Amino acid sequence: MQFTTTALLALAGAVSAQKVHVVSVGSTNGTLAFSPDSVKADVGDMLQFQFRGGNHSVAQSNFDNPCSPIADHVSNTTGIFSGYQPVAASQAMGMIPTYTVMVSAKTPLWFYCSQAKHCQAGMVMVVNENTAANSTRSLANFKTLAKAATANIAPTRASGGTTGSNSTSGSTGSGSSSGSGSSSSGSSSSGSGSSTSSGSDSTTSGAASAASSAAAAATAAANAVGVSSSMGLLGVVAAMLML
């Protein structure tokens, strides 16, 4: 098989431009937080949520209705839900559970943990906060709304991303596009997401849609401390150039 230098260099440029933004979900000391809780991501970047401790989830809401699924408020929108991740069981095997989604738009994405009252306790985050467009739609105001929420509601099924795992030793892990998870009560959920957009804050479900092959590559590339997803694929490109 022959590859042109131009095509391979174009591929290398596209790969190197993609980033993996690692977000820690919870911690080994019981902290109820996403870290960082604000991320700036470009279209095509990957968000990899790494579950560090406890029993947490990543669920998508919109700004006006924190602590409840975006699907309950925006028609024809599924949103993102990781399901509850088995951190203790994975850590016993030397692995960290991950959930990876691709960013496909620059509109703000609002997330929360649907476990117990974690959302009300401030376990929320935003991707691409845009206070320049609307100063009231800030992460601080989102946390205030979340604190006042009367209930913390989990979506009915996992959707919109790819589950996987990373080694706690820092080596690469594996990924799966099954999108399944189990709740603390032991019930399981699975499903796939849609890519429609609506809502008063222009929140886009498709802005964090699943891309199974890209997410699997990101899972394999991002280790426990988070690295760029480009290195492995750039190695492939370099090998091709040598043919």
Which SSEs are present, and which pair or pack?
Blueprint: H1 5-17, E1 20-25, E2 34-35, E3 38-39, E4 46-51, E5 59-61, H2 87-92, E6 95-102, E7 109-112, E8 124-127, H3 139-147, E9 162-167, E10 174-176, E11 181-182, E12 188-189, H4 212-221, H5 230-241
Parallel strand pairs: 1-4, 3-8
Antiparallel strand pairs: 1-2, 4-6, 5-7, 6-9, 7-8, 9-10, 11-12
Helix pairs in contact: 1-5
Question: How would you describe this structure to a colleague?
Answer:
The protein has 243 residues and is α+β, with helices and mostly antiparallel strands. The protein is 21% helix and 20% strand. It has helices spanning 5-17, 87-92, 139-147, 212-221, 230-241; strands at residues 20-25, 34-35, 38-39, 46-51, 59-61, 95-102, 109-112, 124-127, 162-167, 174-176, 181-182, 188-189. The chain has a six-stranded mixed sheet. Strand 11 (181-182) and strand 12 (188-189) form a beta hairpin. Helix 1 runs antiparallel to helix 5. It starts with a helix and ends with a helix. Residues 7-12, 178-212 and 223-241 have low confidence and may be disordered.
